[in-house]
User: What shape does this take?
Amino acid sequence: MRNIVNIVKVFVKHWYRRKSTIFWTILFPIMLMTIFGSIFSNMGESKLTLYIQNQDRDNGEYTGLSQALMDALNSTDAFDIHEVDASQNLDEVLKEASNPRALIIPQGFSQEIQDALYNKDSPATQVILRRDVSQISDPAPGIINTVIRQFSTHLIVGDTREVVTIEEEAGESGFRYIDFFLPGVIGMTVMTTGLMGAVSINTEYRINGVLRKLATTPISKLDWVLAVVLYEMLIAFLAAGIIIGLGYLPISIFNVQVSLTLPAVLLLFAGAFAFPGMGMILARFVRDPTAADASANAIAFPMMFLSGTFFPIEMYPDFLKSVAQILPLTYFNNGLRAAMVDNQPDIAITNTIIVVILAVIFIVIGTLVTSWREK
Assistant: This one.
């Protein structure tokens, strides 16, 4: 038993002496709980956006039963309802929606229900739910179907048939979560590759004495910093290319609808310079290799989750939105989505300029703080 206890003591000492294990064991779970708890704590109170195009009109006014269905949906408080006039192009409206979801009440809706009172064999009355069918976790269809069943039972007196919901794809031009997610994954990859790679290289070479030896060569600190940045840029482009390629492959399950435009390429170059520059600054304050990973993770993971990589920043609490505005990855992600998804080159260029400015600042500071002499 004494031997077992002694071995356990050795393992415990080894654990707390390695900062990276402390990060992954304690700090990272706490970070996830804090960030995701803040993001999702109020989600139960938020409403789902639902566009409704009621085409069933009589003398320019909604018919009684179609208006009753709209009122029933609105009474659930589950939806933030936006009415779309029958003369509007619904597809164009859904193009601008972050989560396209629309219910179409077709012309003749009320008449079909009334006809069913006299002919029980008539076809079922239909409404159309147009949405992104790839979002299998979307709660809206279940809520809508429940409301429609109750509507059929309580409001349509004498008709035993249910009004049925037909689902349609919102359209390939519509926004899907995978199209939002892919630029975020590219941003995350470029950030983690550049930041963590630069910290790891600089720390390891300083501990091994390589940087001290470089002081005796014609290589300047700027040469060294730019070489590390360029190396990390190549790795970042390789990783980003793989991600984009997987999304575009004909056999891919993702079937992404994003476009690799010139502003997106320019932004990739800017980000590939900015994040290694951050890493060079951070590496100046890391004293041993075991602390390098923990230090890089302590910066990378909060920035990953707070910069809109996985979820729209609009759904964050106000205090997290403020934090997101000071993070470089926020502008990188926003720019990529503007260039690759939203076809907004002006916004993409604006974010690219911001990232370029940050890249210059990081590289200059990284050059100034890099030391050949210290171990």
Q: What stands out?
A: Residues 177-207 form the longest helix (31 residues). Residues 212 and 372 are 5 Å apart (CA to CA).
